[in-house]
Amino acid sequence: MKVLYHAMSILILSVFLFGLFSLTDLFYTHHLASLLLNVDFVPGFFDVSFGLKFILHIVFTTMIYVVFQAIRDSYVYPAGILIIIVLFAVIYPSLITWSINPIYQFHWIDYIVWMIGHTVFIFLVVFILRFEKNLWY
What we know:
Structural class: mainly alpha
Helix content: over 70%
Order of helices and strands: HHHHH
Distance between the termini: 13 Å
């Protein structure tokens, strides 16, 4: 049952972030949803299907989720949260710089939305893991 809980949580987190950025793209940001899934800078991945890109996004979500699950009862947990937020802050400009597709351009409003979305994502991970801990332990 715990495995199903974690698998569903990872899927919901992945869909949440992509859905949030898709909604913001409709109103005022520039391609955040596609930037989130962008892998065109990886050799051999220039023209990849949406499904494969989304699976890669789920893999990255899983890695973050597993790390946070591993350190949640540790004294390094607050530092882990800070480190991942800094990592997300660095990823946005890096993805734009690495991208081959010229549609990705740096915009401050996009950067702010990117950071808000990823910060909410991290707090959702923390909440889900805390809820899971109270549910089965």
